[in-house]
Amino acid sequence: MRELDVARITQAVAELFLEANYVIGTDVMDKLAQSQAAEPSPLGRMVLEQIIENNTIGARERMPVCQDTGLSVVYLSIGQEVHLVGGSLEEAVNAGVRKAYQEGYLRKSIVAEPLFDRKNTGDNTPCVLHVRLIPGDKVHITAIAKGFGSENMSQLKMLTPSDGVEGVKRFVLRVVEEAGPNPCPPLVVGVGIGGSFELCALMAKRATSLPMSRSHRDPRYKALEDDLEQEINRLGIGPAGYGGQTTALKVHIMTAPTHIAGLPVAVNICCHAARHAEMTL
Fold it and tell me: 12: burial class by Cβ within 10 Å (0-12, 13-18, 19+)?
């Protein structure tokens, strides 16, 4: 059994949210550069050039790449051989979020009550926390700073098995088309297929943080990812909605077993920044 003080999780979470807001991954930057080189629209190329420049300045100057520094989402995979000591895990994670958003001068965007008072908590807490137990004695942390221009464009639909592949494709394409310029394309599109009402949404969110080089291990789903990416880019929405062929940088699909009567599908739209960072303790 390995002991781990939750103070280390607090510090790691703080570092990850600063990194996620300041530094866009090299895989995303490479895909943006490739898309700019291939984009036929002059206006689209100009927008992509500005996005790349913005991201470069953010990393160099340690400044947020976007004014919406997001709702904080934390995925914790905790080895079952780890004994957490020193206090509450949830409080430790929120302390890390608080530290990042206060000391890093990131915008605080969370309201404590969603419908009536909507009073800002002042420190971007509480975060959305997902915890699962895994074999081993390590703790893996994924921090996602999810802006709501893109989050608001996400949708979930309980399809039936008879809808099949074509039904899934129609739904995903409709979601992106209805989103139009609102989620700041080009996009990373996370798709969750299977599971239950809540699990498919969770998979879709997690999918937006996968590496650009990652594809579904099942060749049938990989083909569906590629097909959806091509179809989305044929919609003509383009960078920032000004037209062009670069509407999606990547489509990621995650899947899970489901009920014989169901085919849940969730689409989580993410802007080109796809702000996330990971660490293993």
Answer: buried
Give residue limits of the domains in the chain. Answer: 2-20+65-146, 149-274
- In degrees, to the nearest 5, what angle opens at C-alpha 268 toward C-alphas 266 and 272? 155
Tokens of 171: 């739904």
Q: Considering only the C-alpha atoms of the chain, give the largest distance between any 2 of them, rounded to a whole number of Å.
A: 59
| pLDDT 10s digits, 190-203 | 999 999 999 999 99
- One-character DSSP codes across 152-211: TT-EEEEE-GGGHHHHHHHHHHHHHHHHTTTT-SSEEEEEEEEE-HHHHHHHHHHHTTS-
- Round to whole Å and give the CA distance between 205 and 177: 19
Let me know: does 171 contact 159? Beta carbons within 8 Å.
Answer: yes
Residue type, 63: M
The amino acid present at 128, given as its one-letter code, is V
Query: H or E segment at 72?
Result: strand 71-79
Q: pLDDT tens digit string along 28-63?
A: 999 999 999 999 999 999 999 999 999 999 999 999
CB 271 within 8 A of CB 22: no
Distance CA 6, CA 162 (A): 48
Using alpha carbons, select from 130, 121, 123 the residue that is nearest to residue 90: 130
Could you give the CA distance from residue 185 to residue 171 in angstroms, rounded to a whole number? 18
Residue 17 has a pLDDT of: 98
Distance CA 195, CA 256 (A): 5
Q: What is the CATH number of domain 2-20+65-146?
A: 3.30.360
Region for 255 from its dihedrals, namely left if φ exceeds 0, alpha if ψ lies in -120 to 50, beta otherwise: beta
